[in-house]
Design goal:
Layout (H helix, E strand, L loop, with lengths): L5 H26 L3 E5 L5 H8 L4 E6 L15 E3 L14 E5 L10 H9 L4 E5 L16 H9 L3 E4 L2 H5 L7 H6 L1 E5 L7 H6 L13 H47 L1
Helix pairs in contact: 1-2
Length: 259
């Protein structure tokens, strides 16, 4: 993975904190985690919110490009690791978080990355960018069924309750509202009665949804591009007309001189 520009990292942390303040308490209520790991944690914004809500045992994993002096969590709770390499940690966690990370890895790393997540714990809070979703260093943007099938192969089921819950929550960034999925090891379902009793699980392909904010963003981009193209065409027409007029004038002057 490649690091973000510094200004992007700062804005990303602020928006992540706002989103986590909405989502983390809901997840805690359903799962009751005591140990949480975030794979691709950035500066640890999501983990800092889990800790704020009573989860004491946290661990963040990300590349060595992360500026540890800017972490929102203790440096002792951060482990530098190249996410394109297999992740082997002896410990297991009640909740594994990986949000908007998988698309930054090459496609050939997708299955091994999911393997690493499921080896860490029975519940995975996961999201990854859709095709054509804007962002930096996106190498493997996929529709949600791509990732769901990888988790299903590992014995996990999907609770698609987060997109419904947060779809219209303005405090949650649209990319989380659009992409968040909760995968649970099927053999461990009895450990989460509140989740199981309030929401359905499935091993069917999740519906592909595009958030209105992304649609509007893409439409605005397209309209601006169209306007720009029209402006360019207008300038080119004027230049061509000017050039033709100049050539005609020179031809007339040349003919007069010859006469």
């Amino acid at each position: 993975m490649q690091p973000y520009a510094e200004d992007h990292s700062i804005s990303s942390v602020n928006s992540s904190l706002n989103s986590a303040q909405e989502v983390a308490p809901f997840i805690i209520d359903l799962i009751q985690p005591k140990r949480v790991i975030d794979v691709g944690c950035g500066l640890g914004a999501w983990l800092s919110v889990f800790k704020e809500h009573g989860v004491e045992d946290i661990l963040g994993i990300d590349g060595d490009y992360v500026d540890v002096n800017k972490l929102k969590i203790s440096q002792k709770s951060f482990l530098a690791h190249d996410l394109t390499k297999p992740l082997t940690i002896e410990a297991t966690f009640d909740l594994v978080v990986s949000l908007e990370v998988a698309e930054h890895l090459p496609a050939q790393n997708a299955e091994s990355f999911v393997d690493g997540l499921v080896n860490l714990g029975p519940v995975i809070l996961f999201s990854a960018a859709l095709p054509y979703q804007p962002g930096e260093h996106h190498y493997n943007c996929q529709w949600p069924n791509y990732w769901a099938n990888l988790f299903y192969e590992k014995g996990y089921v999907l609770f698609d309750c987060l997109r419904i819950k947060f779809w219209q929550n303005k405090n949650v960034d649209w990319w989380y509202s659009q992409n968040m999925l909760l995968f649970v090891r099927q053999s461990s379902l009895s450990n989460y009665p509140k989740l199981k009793n309030n929401f359905y699980f499935t091993t069917s392909e999740p519906v592909s949804l595009v958030h209105p904010e992304l649609y509007q963003l893409q439409q605005t981009t397209y309209q601006n591009l169209e306007a720009s193209n029209l402006s360019i065409k207008s300038v080119l027409k004027r230049k061509i007309k000017y050039t033709l007029n100049s050539l005609q004038k020179k031809n007339r002057e040349s003919n007069l001189s010859f006469d």
